[in-house]
Design goal:
There is one protein chain. The protein has 4 helices and 2 strands; from the N terminus they run αββααα. With 130 residues, it is mostly helical. A two-stranded antiparallel ribbon has the order 1-2. The radius of gyration is 19 Å and the shape is elongated. It binds zinc ion.
């Protein structure tokens, strides 16, 4: 891969990482013990002597936030892995993890954290039921 492309992808990944972390911190706290893990804060509606209605509302909000947290966290992990690859094994970045061939540049531009080429991605996602 060309050095210019590599720098561009790194920039793109770092930018997305910043956005993801900012989004996560809006409703979650960074877990100090587990790297890359976030804990969703329990929402507080109204005052302490909350009505059962408010309690139920809080639980609903909380479970929605947990789902969002999971999505953002998973994406953040992919980004961190891709960044680590660029930093430590830049020669491997952009190579399909299954067939070891270069991943299509357009695919990487859409998602620089892609781990497989289009060919392998299609093969693994439409596995016939055995
Ligand atoms: Zn492949």
């Amino acid at each position: 891969m060309k050095q210019d492309d590599l720098i561009q992808f790194k920039k793109q990944l770092e930018e997305e990482k910043r956005f993801l972390e900012k989004d996560l911190l809006k409703f979650a706290d960074k877990d100090k013990k587990v790297k890359g893990d976030y804990d969703t804060r329990f929402p507080q509606i109204g005052d302490r002597s909350a009505s059962p209605d408010e309690d139920a509302q809080e639980v609903t909000i909380y479970s929605n936030l947990l789902a969002i947290e999971h999505t953002l966290e998973t994406r953040l992990q992919e980004i961190n892995e891709a960044l680590e690859k660029i930093n430590k094994h830049s020669e491997d970045f952009g190579l399909c993890e299954i067939c070891k061939k270069p991943i299509e540049l357009l695919r990487l531009k859409t998602n620089p954290a892609s781990k497989t080429c289009i060919n392998c991605a299609t093969k693994t996602s439409v596995k016939p039921a055995s």
